[in-house]
Write a structure and sequence with these properties.
heterodimer, A: 113 residues, mainly beta, six-stranded mixed β-sheet, globular, B: 117 residues, four-stranded antiparallel β-sheet
Chain lengths: 113, 117
């Protein structure tokens, strides 16, 4: 069973609107959680990282939240732009000797004009 | 510009053929990784290397082989034993400096898409 589950699988939003993506994880012991953005045919690029003690982290129009007690994270996109169309991947790292990553399957976001 | 270069971008494999995917980085990172990405699934780890001349199997190493003769290079060979090689392959690297390696981001290349002829 995947230790990182993302929802929804995909969503379509109008340009200028906001949206929120969800990530639930069971990875333990928890080290940190990152959100990556992956454009079609490209490699993932890190947007934010949060450790156990952090609740919120922003990067421009992207705001990530973390609830380490419930093992949930969200990524909020504000005032979406066409360039936000991509897959957003939640990645959780365990506290081990080499920081193995567990990847969610991603949420495919399509922003339409 | 520092980064990771994967080549080729597209690759086709014939039945019974081995093919090699190239991954080069100029970020001076010690650790390098190979992942496989299939539709609807998270990235899965094939092999990783934390230092030159050393590498370890990941979760789905069967049918693949790697080498790490230079710090900058971590090529992946998809052998004929890999019966379902069609996928998007991503190479990544990471610094092992700092207190926690897990807090260092993995930097990804732009991938190689492998298909069967």
């Amino acid at each position: 069973k995947n230790q990182v589950e993302q929802s929804p699988q995909s969503l379509i939003i109008l340009e200028g609107k906001n949206c929120t993506l969800q990530c639930n994880y069971t990875v333990s012991p928890f080290s940190n959680l990152r959100w990556y953005k992956q454009d079609t045919g490209r490699g993932p690029v890190s947007l934010t990282i949060m450790t156990f003690s952090e609740n919120t982290k922003s990067n421009g129009r992207y705001t990530a939240t973390l609830d380490a007690d419930t093992k949930q994270s969200s990524l909020h996109i504000t005032a979406s732009q066409l360039s936000d169309s991509a897959s957003y991947i939640c990645v959780v790292s365990a506290t081990d000797s080499w920081g193995k990553l567990q990847f969610g399957a991603g949420t495919q976001v399509v922003v339409t004009p | 510009d520092g980064g990771i270069t994967q080549s080729p971008k597209y690759l086709f494999r014939k039945e019974g053929q081995n093919v090699t995917l190239s991954c080069e980085q100029n970020l001076n990172h010690d650790a390098m990784y190979w992942y496989r990405q299939d539709p609807g699934q998270g990235l899965r780890l094939i092999y990783y290397s934390q230092i030159v001349n050393d590498f370890q199997k990941g979760d789905i190493a069967e049918g693949y082989s790697v080498s790490r003769e230079k710090k900058e290079s971590f090529p992946l060979t998809v052998t004929s034993a890999q019966k379902n090689p069609t996928a998007f392959y991503l190479c990544a690297s990471r610094s092992t400096g700092g207190h926690y390696i897990s807090n260092q981001p993995q930097h990804f290349g732009d991938g190689t898409r492998l298909s069967i002829l």
